[in-house]
Write a structure and sequence with these properties.
By secondary structure, this protein is α/β, with parallel strands linked by helices. It has helices at residues 11-14, 16-21, 26-36, 55-59, 77-88, 103-109, 205-218, and strands at residues 2-7, 40-45, 63-67, 92-96, 117-129, 143-153, 163-170, 175-184, 187-192.
Length: 238
């Protein structure tokens, strides 16, 4: 399996407090634990040529991880279209945290915006696993406790997920659909809520396990191409 971890890589270069948590970028931390799990990993960032997502990179990507926050609008539409086409044709996509506001997530959801409630107050988050037996939950307990995270709250303006894996509860009282699977064409998308840049969430072993499992789950399988347009009948009357 070949994974590309994409990150806009802005906060970690501009804010010293965030740089102290992720000195080489959020993408570097994610790439490290995926690599240690035996996965072939490449990283790409927004300011690279073609956002690091050239045809060659995408053609060699089974699963794309996406983290963005303050520069969603800087991703060119042609890059979004290329990623979209590959997801429809079977590339897996894992959208992280504030990636809910990315162009690619909106396009795959069929919406122009994905609204929610939010608050940066270092609330406790409990991720409850609600789809027993789901492959993303392999090796995990019934809940993951994150002592300090950014709060997201319902209503989360997304289409009905095809599979709902996690629901979060926050100490401020909010709940949130935090682990959602969507199926689009041949591709699968997993949205995973935790991962605010100012807290070390991606160092938590259980969070890492979720993302390792997610990479395996959304990876597509190869199948014959479909023919579209006019088609001759496959059965003829005798």
């Amino acid at each position: 399996m070949k994974v590309t971890v994409w990150n806009e890589f802005a906060h970690e270069r501009e804010d010293e407090n965030i740089k102290a948590i992720y000195p080489d970028g959020i993408h570097a931390v994610i790439a490290k634990f995926l690599t240690e799990a035996g996965i072939d990993v490449t990283t790409a960032t927004l300011d690279m040529p073609e956002c690091g997502l050239t045809d060659e990179v995408l053609d060699n990507t089974d699963v794309l991880f996406w983290w963005g926050h303050v520069r969603h609008g800087d991703v060119p539409d042609e890059i979004v279209e290329k990623v979209y086409e590959r997801v429809i044709n079977g590339m897996g996509l894992v959208v992280l945290h504030s990636g809910h506001a990315s162009k690619i997530f909106h396009k795959l959801c069929g919406t122009t915006t994905v609204n929610l409630k939010w608050r940066e107050s270092n609330d406790k988050e409990i991720l409850w696993a609600i789809d027993q037996g789901h492959p993303i939950l392999e090796g995990l307990d019934e809940k993951i406790i994150i002592e300090h995270e950014e709060t997201y709250g319902e209503h989360f303006q997304i289409p009905q997920p095809d599979e709902l894996v996690f629901i979060s509860w926050f100490s401020g009282g909010e709940v949130f659909r935090s682990g959602c699977v969507f199926k689009r064409g041949r591709g699968k998308i997993f949205y995973f809520r935790p991962g605010h840049e100012s807290v070390p969430t991606y160092y938590i072993p259980e969070v890492q396990k979720v993302l390792i499992n997610a990479a395996k789950y959304v990876k597509g399988t190869k199948s014959a191409d479909y023919d579209y347009g006019w088609a001759a009948p496959t059965v003829t009357a005798e």
